[in-house]
């Protein structure tokens, strides 16, 4: 399953059914689990662990040193789960000693061409990052978030679960779960709930009505974060999904897009 023109360093741990295409280079600390497909001209290096049934297309760079001036060669890692797709020219860097020490990617994520995942980023499950999405260091993307093409996310931002970020948007604050965010008409702001995405994921009508109420509390009533959290807490028994809003408001350090 390994092409004769691939270069596999001694020490690499590759399960027998993994395919490695011609002219790909696999470093000595790399581990690749069953069912993963590595196309031609891919470079995977550093202390990188890749799970099952991933597909990595040509010219991807996985597990390279972080692009951070503070990095001085300390041992850091990259962890990739199962069933992810990495399209052409993607770059994914390992963590740093100043961060959490690792970059983590969960399961069932789709990363389109030219996406960049910087050091110490954490991606959940089921996310979609469209072409040329750029994540600076220490960014967290929660489950089922969809990010449009040419989106730029600043360091230490958190992107909420189930949200949609429109193409060519600059993100410098945390993005709430469930919302649609865009800078199409100027500054980055919310445009309500990500209704199309939520309906595709089978959120019930009742849940959507309650999430709309919660969204209005946060973004339409001119409340402080503490006052908004107090109002949202009352809704938890009726709509447990509101907990994601509360968690974001309690943990935000950069502020939120309103």
Topology (elements, then pairings):
Layout: E1 7-8, E2 13-14, E3 19-20, E4 25-26, E5 31-32, E6 37-38, E7 43-44, E8 47-50, E9 55-56, E10 61-64, E11 77-80, E12 85-86, E13 91-93, E14 102-105, E15 110-111, E16 116-117, E17 122-123, E18 128-129, E19 134-135, E20 140-141, E21 146-147, E22 152-153, E23 158-159, E24 164-165, E25 170-171, E26 179-182, E27 189-193, H1 195-200, H2 205-219, H3 225-235, H4 243-251
Parallel strand pairs: 1-4, 2-5, 3-6, 4-7, 5-8, 6-9, 7-10, 8-11, 9-12, 10-13, 11-14, 12-15, 13-16, 14-17, 15-18, 16-19, 17-20, 18-21, 19-22, 20-23, 21-24, 22-25, 24-26
Antiparallel strand pairs: 26-27
Helix pairs in contact: 2-3, 3-4
- What would the CATH topology of the largest domain be? UDP N-Acetylglucosamine Acyltransferase, domain 1
Summarize the biggest pleated sheet: 10 strands, mixed
CATH superfamily membership of the largest domain? Hexapeptide repeat proteins
Q: Main sheet: which strands, in order across?
A: 3-6-9-12-15-18-21-24-26-27
Which CATH first-tier class of the largest domain would you pick? Mainly Beta
Return residue spans where pLDDT drops below 50 for at least 5 consecutive residues.
Answer: none
- Please indicate the count of domains: 2
Query: Average pLDDT value?
Result: 97
Strand content: 25-35%
Helical residue percent band: 10-25%
As an assembly, this protein is: single chain
Q: Please identify, by name, the CATH architecture of the largest domain.
A: 3 Solenoid
Number of strands: 27
Please identify the structural class as seen in this structure.
Answer: alpha/beta
Shape: elongated
Rg over CA atoms, rounded to whole Å, is 20 Å
User: Number of helical runs?
Assistant: 4
Give the CA-CA distance, first to last residue. 51 Å
């Amino acid at each position: 399953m390994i092409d004769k023109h691939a270069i596999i360093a001694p020490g690499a741990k590759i399960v027998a059914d993994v395919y490695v295409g011609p002219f790909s280079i696999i470093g000595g600390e790399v581990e690749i689990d069953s069912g993963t497909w590595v196309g031609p001209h891919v470079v995977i290096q550093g202390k990188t662990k890749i799970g099952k049934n991933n597909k990595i297309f040509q010219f991807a760079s996985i597990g390279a040193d972080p692009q951070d001036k503070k990095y001085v060669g300390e041992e850091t890692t990259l962890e990739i789960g199962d069933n992810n797709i990495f399209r052409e020219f993607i770059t994914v860097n390992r963590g740093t000693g100043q961060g959490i020490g690792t970059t983590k990617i969960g399961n069932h994520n789709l990363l389109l061409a030219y996406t960049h995942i910087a050091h110490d980023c954490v991606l959940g499950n089921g996310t979609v990052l469209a072409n040329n999405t750029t994540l600076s260091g220490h960014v967290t993307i929660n489950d089922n978030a969809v990010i449009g093409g040419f989106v730029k996310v600043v360091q230490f931002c958190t992107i909420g679960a189930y949200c949609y970020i429109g193409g060519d948007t600059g993100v410098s604050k945390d993005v709430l779960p469930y919302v649609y965010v865009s800078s199409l008409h100027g500054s980055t702001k919310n445009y309500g709930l990500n209704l199309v995405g939520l309906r595709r994921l089978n959120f019930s009508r009742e849940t959507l009505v309650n999430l709309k109420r919660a969204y209005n509390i946060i973004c339409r009533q001119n409340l402080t974060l503490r006052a908004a959290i107090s109002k949202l807490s009352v809704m938890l028994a009726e709509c447990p999904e509101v907990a994601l809003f509360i968690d974001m408001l309690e943990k935000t350090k950069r502020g939120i897009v309103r």
